[in-house]
Amino acid sequence: MAKTVAEINEKIRGGTVVVVSAEEFSKMARSTDLATLAEEVDIVTTATFAPMCSSGAIINFGHWTPPIRMEEIRLNGVSAYEGLAAVDTYIGATAESKFDPTYGGAHVIEALIRGDDVRLQAHGKGTDCYPTREVDTWINKETVNEFYLFNPRNAYQNYSAATNSTGKIKYTYMGSLLPRFSNVTYSTSGELSPLLNDPYLRTIGLGTRIFLGGTIGYVVWNGTQYNTRRDRTADGVPTLGGATLAVVGDAKAMSTEYIKSAYYEKYGVSLFVGIGIPIPVLDEEMAAHLAITNDRIKTSIVDFGKEDHPPVRSVTYAELASGSVTLDGERPVKTAPLSSLAKAREIAGLLKAWIEEKQFFLTEAVASLPTDSFVRPLVPREGGIR
Amino acid sequence: MKKRYALRFSPTLVEQPIVSKLVRIYDVDINILNADVASGRGGKLIVELSGSQEALEESVAYLNEIGIIVSEMVKELIFLEDACIDCGACTAVCSPKALSLDEEARLFFDASLCVVCGLCVQACPLRLFSVSDERGA
Q: Which residues of A are catalytic?
């Protein structure tokens, strides 16, 4: 019998809700039929903790006396966006310090979340209403008005795995890729990952309440590069890229346990973001999606040694998680993850506890995310450089 | 062959003619690279010994025997394990499998397998690895 989100929330209130993680659910599905599972389990928690470059924070610094219209802004030497109102900014996770390329926006965000003081330097041209031209001071999360993450593209549904055919090590956002196909890296929590468990985003949409960085956050739009036209497996799971989410959450309430700055050698700065999404087991169809296992999730291993990253072979996450795959059909090649499965499990467990303790209730989406969307390339046009 | 050692002494050993003894009895050449020795409070010497392998082994044995703490100056991997987030990126480059993920997906470092190639220093997105240069001998 089908359930509604409202009925599940009643069970949370009544203390009778049954919550399991997506890994536990997949295990249960080995010995229990889907109809029974759909009946008995109310919520499945999913999670991921991975580097997500398209992340950043909005900050309002408060007004200086006499006021300044900030037109150049630096936080610990990292440039932040100045094209908003006088004392609003957006600091992107991958923005690099002018002085140290291993330090960037992600580190500033982590420092602020931790409660550290951060140096703010701002310049304005001086106007009749904003006469101050220079500000050089210190801020922290208590001194600013708003400090919230707004991440334009997080929680990629699926992602290609990487290898390197060249004779030289390649330092990439997919980690250090050894020469001559000597390793393969991948970034997913697989069967625990949010959008692999709800492949058509039936229960995830605008306004969905989630775990973000250690506190409550929300899905506020589809993520950029949202693609519904990927090939799908028989289970409906895209075999590459796919859906993404734009998310928001109060960074003042976040924890550096679940938001972590990162630097990838010769690539740059990124941000590990912890995301957890509770998925209601509305009916048998949702139970079937939630029962997905790593051996039924596929991606492509692509060659970062070539400019267009051509696919080398198709692979399942069970193979990738086993520690080695074969690329030419013979020699085993070491595989390694870039996203932390241990942290993702921790997040799924925490979200489950929040629900059981009645601190977290499910939402129904205000609107669905796009059902037909694809990714356009940037093409050269006349008058530009080819 | 040549090897570098750090020698740490207690105050009572400072008075002993260690250097001349090594030269005379064990037939090794000593190059003192750094010295921090003061009467009454012990000290530390960084030395380079050259001689046959046997002579070096006997010299180290002698120094250990008289109570000097001898460390060989070799490369060693330092890992700030407490800050590790278990992402696994370092395991991608660790050929001897000194760095691996255990069954709970937690990072496990087996120092005995480490060959100090240093690839993990660059591979770790949190920069938790570095290479040091001293080890007990």
A: 129
Q: Is A17 exposed, middle or buried (0-12, 13-18, 19+ CB in 10 A)?
A: buried
Distance from the Cα of A336 to chain B's closest Cα (Å) equals 5
Torsion of the alpha carbons at A269, A270, A272 and A273, rounded to the nearest 10: 140
Q: Using the beta-carbon criterion (under 8 Å), do B89 and A176 form an inter-chain contact?
A: yes
The answer to whether the CB atoms of B127 and A260 lie below 8 A apart is no
Question: Could you please report the per-residue DSSP string of B1-68?
Answer: -EEEEEEEE-GGGTTS-HHHHHHHHH--EEEEEEEEEETTTEEEEEEEEES-HHHHHHHHHHHHHTT-
Q: Which residue in A has a C-alpha nearest to residue B89's C-alpha? A: A338
pLDDT tens sequence across A32-79: 999 999 999 999 999 999 999 999 999 999 999 999 999 999 999 999
Contacts of A239 (CB under 8 A, 6+ apart): A158, A230, A231, A232, A233, A298, A299, A300, A314
Q: Which chain A residues are Cβ-neighbours of B126 within 8 angstroms?
A: 260, 262-263
**Phi, psi (degrees; rounded to nearest 5) at A26:** -60, -35
Residues in chain A within 8 Å Cβ distance of B85: 49, 260, 272, 340, 342-343
ipTM surpasses 0.85:
yes
Most B CBs within 10 A among A180, A334, A343, A346, hence the mutation to make, goes to A334
Would you list the DSSP string of A116-145?
--EEEEEE----SS--B-EEEEEE-TTTSS
Residue A210 phi/psi, 5° resolution? -135, 175
Which pLDDT score is estimated for A218? 98
User: Which chain B residue's Cα is nearest to A176?
Assistant: B123
Q: What would the pLDDT profile of A93-116 be if each residue is shown by its tens digit?
A: 999 999 999 999 999 999 999 999
Residue B136: per-residue pLDDT: 63
Given a cut of 70, whether residue B15 has pLDDT beyond it is no
Nearest in space to B125 (alpha carbons), one of A56, A337, A211: A337
Secondary structure element (H or E) that encloses residue A112, with its range: helix A105-114
Q: Which residues on chain A are in Cβ contact (under 8 Å) with B105?
A: 340-342, 345
Q: Find the closest chain A residue to B102 by CA distance.
A: A342
The 10s digit of each residue's pLDDT in A245-271 is 999 999 999 999 999 999 999 999 999
pLDDT for position B14: 67
Does pTM top 0.90 for this prediction? no
Q: Is the pLDDT of residue A386 over 60?
A: no
